[in-house]
Model the fold of this input.
Amino acid sequence: MQNSDIELFFAIYKTKTLTKAAETLFLSQSTVSQRLALLEKEVGVPLFTRSKGQKYVELTSYGEDFLSIAQRWLLLQEEIREIHKNPQYFRLRIAGVHSLNNFLLLPFYSQALEMCPTMELHITNHHSWEIHKLMENRELDIGFMNNDADSEKFFSIPIIKEPFCLITHKDKFPDSSFVHPGDLDPGKELYHSWSHDYQQWHDHWWHPDKRSVIHINEPSMLEPFLKHDYWAILPVTAAQKFIDTKPVKIYSLKSPPPDIVRYMTIQKNLRAGSKEAVRIFTQILYKFLETCPYSCLPDSIIYESLSRSHEKRL
Done:
């Protein structure tokens, strides 16, 4: 079926006669009759009927059904003609660990959308191992994790290296800014396993049998407990978010765990249309992290070279 067939149908429908339809289309009446017969043959049902002795044609019940189809056809044709006027949206599927997404990257996502209004971000929170699996299954374009995870399908870039700190009620250690792990009651810990290195450090100071009965999988779950005599060890950027809203204090740790390194992982073989989105996204991210005291990205010259290298791999 061609656009000309739809035009023929509407010409007959609007003029009610084959003669006037032929005049509208600058065709002979015989040509209009032949093309209508071919259209009805293709559709498989009669679209118009003309009673004996009457001048005008009318839609059959099939013709009425075909009318709504023809109207949608014209709308689709109009949308196709106008598609070049629409902005090109860049869609990215992103997942990050909760402590990074919610406490550090949330303002960045807002900034990225302001700087690139045609960017569409699909953002979710997951554990590092879940993000690794989603990246392997190509269900994500970018992931933010707590561990290095290069594979045949994606590569990793360290973006943040930050220390851990202790967060607890402000009156627990009123005269100190440093706290030794040995001074902490493991039965009052709000426990979260941050990384393999952190776990080794944790097991050095507290035997697994003496751990708190409260295990959390997201830092936001700390809030109800921080008003009591509990404590937690968090990355600094996560702990700072509780200072303004809770009666808590941040303490440095004597003999602290190794700093936690956060990684951005990117698919090597991106979906069609995602390469440009990733390029724009990472450029905005780098500018954002320039103001972060815990950024461990290389300087701009090295990073630009790194970006070009990654684009070639993509």
Observations:
- Residues 5 and 38 are 9 Å apart (CA to CA).
- Confidence is low (pLDDT under 50) at residues 305-314.
- The two ends are 41 Å apart (CA to CA).
